[in-house]
Amino acid sequence: MGDEIKEECALAAVSLHNPGPKKHAALNLYKMLLQQQHRGQLSAGITTYNPDRTQLIDTYKKLGKVDNAFKTYRREKFLGIMKKYAGSNGIGHLRYATSGADDEGYAQPFERHHGRSWKWFSFAFNGNIANYKELKEELKKASYRMVRELDTELLMHFISKQMVGEKKQALENVFSGISETIDGAYSLVYLNADGELAVLRDPLGFKPLSYGMRDNDFLAASESVAFNTDGEIKTESVAPGEIIIASNGAIEKKRFAKSTRTAHCMFEWIYFASPNSTIERSNVYEARRNLGKTLAKYETQKIDKEFIVVPVPDTAKPIGDALAFELGVPSEEGVMRNRYIGRTFIETDNREQKVKEKYSLVKSVLKDKKVLLVEDSLVRGTTTKGLVQRIRQHGKAKEIHLRIACPPILGPCFYGIDMSTIKELLAAPYVKSIQEGITTEESEKLAKDYGVDSLIYLPVNEIPKAIGLPANNLCMACLNADYPTEQGKKLYQEALNNAKNGVKKRTYE
Ligand code: SF4
Question: At which positions is [4Fe-4S] cluster bound (predicted)?
Answer without folding.
Answer: 265, 413, 475, 478
